[in-house]
Amino acid sequence: MNLTTDQEAMLAGKKGWPLQIAMKMLAAVGRAQDAPELIPVTSAHLVIDGTALGKAGGDFLERLVVEGGRFVIPTSINAIAVDRTKPLKTAEEENQIRILEACEKMGALPSCSCNPFIQGIVPSFGEHVAWSESATAPYINSVLGARTNREGATAVASALTGLTPRYGMHLEENRRPNVLIRVETDLASVDQFSLLGALVGRLAAERIPTLEGLTRIPSIDDYVSFSAAYAIHSMSAIYHFSGITPEAKTLADAYSEPAPLPIIIDDDALDAERRKTANGKEGPVDVVSIGCPHASIEQLREAVEKIESSTNSPEIKVKFYIHTNRTTYDIAEAEGLISVLLDAGITVTADNCSVVSYDKLIKGVRLATNSTKMALFAKSVCNAEILFGSTQECIDAGLSGIWKG
Description:
Blueprint (H helix, E strand, L loop, with lengths): L4 H7 L5 H16 L5 E3 L3 E3 L3 H17 L8 E3 L13 H15 L24 E2 L4 H9 L9 H8 L1 E3 L13 E6 L5 H15 L4 E4 L7 H14 L6 E2 L9 H4 L8 E4 H11 L5 E2 L2 E4 L6 H13 L9 E6 L1 H9 L2 H7 L3 E4 L15 E4 L2 H11 L2 E4 L2 H10 L1 E2 L2
Helix pairs in contact: 1-2, 2-6, 3-4, 5-8, 7-8, 7-10, 11-13, 11-15
């Protein structure tokens, strides 16, 4: 891999330990991926939840601070393992705050969200960035037309140097689709887009799909739900919606050769994916969880509207969580939404979510959710019995204590 004189100096340690360790990481990944060079990136997004990094991760980030490490590009932070405003924190939770503060000292924005797009953190078409968190990469590449690989610890290295290896999604030839999927079912809600994302990811595997046949332009919430589900089942970091997303204005625009014969997704296929996702039956509910990825202000407004219009008593009968980010929480609080949700018995969290939180679900819990990502996590981590449905079905289950399916 070709390095400039300045990059060679970083690698040799002539510009300090933080830049040296960052360049070692980037050079190792670049050589493993046969990248010809490093290219500039304009932003980074870091996964720093304490459940993954632990004390060792905190020690590493704090050493970067002490040694003079500073982020040279705008850098946002993914969801963390605890709400920053929690008054009494455990030792583990205090370690999470220590990790966050180290990143802030290096210049990071404490956005603390797996859905930073609803906070206005939106790369532009053609921008090269370095974002970790699996669900952000498909959204950035597909919906925005910016360029990022699915970064890990290398996102920290990119934040320190403003560089990333030129491979994968940073090369135009790696962004073209090679499988066509025709959607022959109407999609009306985020849970349906979540199911579609899971199914498309499963069908595409390592290939890049183009979808045709969507009857409406998805909302931001639809895209985010689709991208999160797609990311957990596909190795790819990009997809295309024909006539909608920026690199697939037409099928001819998307494919360099004639489009392949399509795979059909109809009502039956989507119902089959729902059955794969949900292994629970009708009956009592233990926990309801909405906001994976983090709920937008529109979703919080929808939840309040559905609670206020419900024929059930407006009092939650089970543990009910809605996860969002601090920015959205503050807006919702100013609109009076948070008080309605809290009065109904719903716990609204900011900064964290069940996927990365220190507060884990109990084994075998009966969990109602509208997110296939949350469903897969809960089944994998605590053998949860999943009850999957729309936001309305989740709220009805919370109000009645019963899942009706």
